[in-house]
Design brief:
The chain has 187 residues and is α+β, with helices and mostly antiparallel strands. β3 and β4 (90-95) form a beta hairpin. It starts with 10 loop residues before the first strand and ends with a helix. The longest helix has 23 residues, at 44-66. Strands 5-6-7 form a three-stranded antiparallel beta sheet, with no helix packed on it. The mean pLDDT is 94. It is flat and about 60 Å long. The chain is built from five helices and seven strands. α1 (17-31) packs across α2 and α2 packs parallel to α3 (99-108).
Length: 187
């Protein structure tokens, strides 16, 4: 309906794509008479789901290109093992999607931003030379905009590595402005 019916919506938010994936998998299983995604054979069901993902992304492209809508996809995060060929394997945050779908969605997106809280750690010395690390935070929400070992991210806007989790700040950067520099200059 967003593509065919007149409306004044300017933004579509899918909250969340990991729940959308569950719906796509359920649809695929029902269409092919399978009780679960594993009914297709080990790993094959997720390959069969890729055309459904491409169909969804093509629809989102149409909304963006033909209707001028902003499309925002939200995903929960999961901790995954990352086998970096240059280092030892380590954990990192990634979208909570099956790997094939995750790669396809990330490739489609212009920006993949990782929302988190700013966290600091403090090491406290306890008895018998034991040390305990405590996490400390103020609740400040931030967006990480470039990939680092701890998280998946990317952007095509030359964003700084970290910005406040504030759509107005992101929108200013998207318009080519530097809201942080402007705020400092105006002070």
């Amino acid at each position: 309906q967003l593509a065919t019916v007149e409306h004044e919506f300017q933004t579509l938010v899918i909250d969340t794509v990991d729940w959308l994936e569950k719906r796509l998998v359920d649809h695929l299983c029902k269409k092919h008479g399978q009780d679960s995604i594993e009914g297709f054979g080990y790993g094959k069901g997720y390959v069969f789901a890729l055309p459904l993902w491409r169909e969804v992304l093509a629809g989102l492209d149409a909304l963006r290109n033909e209707r001028g809508m902003e499309v925002i996809l939200v995903a929960h995060a999961q901790i995954e093992k990352f086998a970096n060929p240059e280092t030892e394997t380590y954990d990192r945050y990634a979208p909570r999607l099956q790997k094939l779908a995750s790669a396809l969605v990330q490739e489609w997106c212009d920006e993949v931003l990782f929302a988190t809280y700013r966290v600091h750690t403090r090491t406290a010395t306890e008895g018998f030379d034991r040390k305990r690390v405590q996490a400390i935070g103020t609740g400040e929400r931030i967006l990480r905009t470039n990939e680092r070992p701890a998280h998946v991210a990317k952007n095509r806007l030359a964003l700084p590595d970290e910005i406040p989790l504030d759509h107005r700040v992101f929108a200013a950067y998207a318009r080519g402005e530097n809201p942080i520099e402007t705020a400092v200059t105006e002070s």
